Amino acid sequence: MKTQSLVLTVAAASAAGATYICPASLSSSDAAAIMYGYKVQGLLESYYNSVPVNASYFESLPNAKMTASNGMTLAENTVTNVEGLTKQAQLGAKALKELGMMLGLSPDECNYMLPPAPNGTAHLMNAFYLEATMCGAFIGLTDYVQAPEAAFLTARLSAEHGIHASAIGAMMQPVGFMPNSTMLTPAFTPDMILQDGMEVGKLGTWLNGCATAPSAPCGGTVTIGELLATLSSGNKSTGGMGMNGTTGMGPNGTSSTPATYSGPVSNAAMSAKASFLGGSFALAVAAYMT
Predict the structure, then answer these.
(1) pTM as predicted
(2) Can you give the residue ranges of every domain in the chain?
């Protein structure tokens, strides 16, 4: 990569004389975001690695013994899919680690707390919760990086986790995409992710103090709306709120929790027609924590 900065003039904005300066290399602000992302991704990798799976483990699933078009039972196919999810989680952590190595980062290991998974159904509920949250976490993290390499990886990981969450959700409920939704896929700023709680969008309980939120760019505040995000600093702001979707401003570099989401990767949507999902997860956590 060339060492000098590349100055790109955006054609659409040229009338206003606006230019965009492309960062020539990863920066210290990218380093903090990458480290945070690595530790968040590591939680998912650790969770998957902690649960040994086989066909009998998933016999609690409805139609577990039904044979699919490939001649395998639902339980057997679920084993293969979960092993694939485990591999993808490992690759995500590897990618973040390699990006961090470009900055000389050497991440320390985390002492995660992991959700209990007494059976296959609980395991899939946990996987949905983690994948859906990480989809939003990496969407939100994209606002905290500057170099194209870092933005590319956060975008790729958010898509990866969103696909996984939707696939897992489809296994557990017949309807995952609500026609009355007013929001795009939810996004969460790091300060939101680090909060304690058991709903999609919060991982603080399981990260167990390991991760630190990076600062918002330009010393500003990131606020996420239903459709768009806003970066504000002093009297200046970029981007904008989605229609009917504003959120309150938190402390510097933070944003407050957005309105309840009703789209495909939402704890609320998952529990709307299958209330056992959130309830069973909360009960399992309560039993684990006591």
Answers:
(1) 0.76
(2) 6-289
